[in-house]
Specification:
This protein is α/β, with parallel strands linked by helices. The chain has nine helices and eight strands. Helix 3 runs parallel beside helix 5 (92-108). The two termini are 26 Å apart.
Length: 252
């Protein structure tokens, strides 16, 4: 198994062609609206042996109903219940959203669940307490929890919380370094936005960020994600081939 796995956030090409091209995919639609559990089981059954799924947690856990992403829900949140969703709140609604997220993740066989937070989830005492309680109480067996904070979080606060409640710090390594994790989970959003095309120099920097022994996931999340991922995967293969040839030469 390769130490560095490359893929995209969502199926950037047809699922069958995708599985022939990449070893891992991050399921995106679970953030907006959870598919049926049977859909997750079918995707798992149709994937080739060794193919890996990761996924984003449902937005009802992380985002408050004021987020524009809630427009994609099938059923709107009643106004009187809007203060009971998001921000890892210790409410029945958030716990139910987690139970349903976990059920889909189990059917899918997801190895990592990404909890992406909005910039409005700031490092207040209340938010930090909610995050601590959530990750200290949920079932953590069989998968990694990965946290992508956005907004005004200090490096020390992120590192401390990740260590305390065992989270992988999710980053775009071309923008900031990862602060903690038994594995590295990189999400490449584009240096200037979604339409960004990663340059050869960018991919060389990414390759350097993948150095060392930690298992590393590189998931591209830009408009040209499939093309960029293919180029980066080829760059890694080129490096691996050069290393193999050096070892063979040294052994002679």
């Amino acid at each position: 198994m390769s130490r560095v796995k490359v893929g995209t956030c969502g199926f950037a090409i047809g699922r069958r062609d995708y599985a022939d091209t990449f070893p891992v995919v991050e399921i995106q639609q679970t953030f907006y609206k959870l598919p049926r559990v049977s859909t997750g089981a079918r995707w798992r059954a149709e994937a080739p042996a060794g193919f890996e799924f990761t996924m984003k947690a449902w937005q009802l856990i992380t985002h408050e109903p004021s987020s524009p992403t809630y427009r994609r829900l099938t059923k709107p949140i009643p106004h009187e219940f809007k203060d009971r969703y998001g921000a890892f709140r210790p409410t029945e609604e958030v716990l139910d959203a987690w139970a349903r997220t976990r059920a889909f993740a189990t059917a899918l066989g997801a190895s990592i669940i990404v909890f992406q937070c909005p910039p409005s989830f700031t490092p207040t005492a209340e938010h930090i307490a909610h995050l601590r309680r959530f990750f200290a109480t949920i079932d953590r067996a069989g998968w990694y929890a990965a946290w992508e904070p956005r907004g005004d979080w200090s490096a020390d606060t992120i590192q401390g919380l990740c260590r305390e409640v065992d989270l992988i710090h999710v980053v775009d390594p071309l923008k900031e370094p990862a602060r903690h994790g038994a594995i590295r989970y990189f999400r490449l959003h584009g240096l200037t936005g979604y339409r960004y095309v990663h340059t050869d120099a960018d991919l060389e920097r990414l390759k350097a960020a993948c150095g060392g022994d930690l298992p590393t996931y590189c998931l591209f999340n830009n408009l040209f994600m499939a093309e960029d991922a293919v180029r980066f995967q080829a760059l890694l293969a080129e490096r691996s081939e050069r290393s193999r040839l050096r070892i063979v030469k040294a052994a002679r």
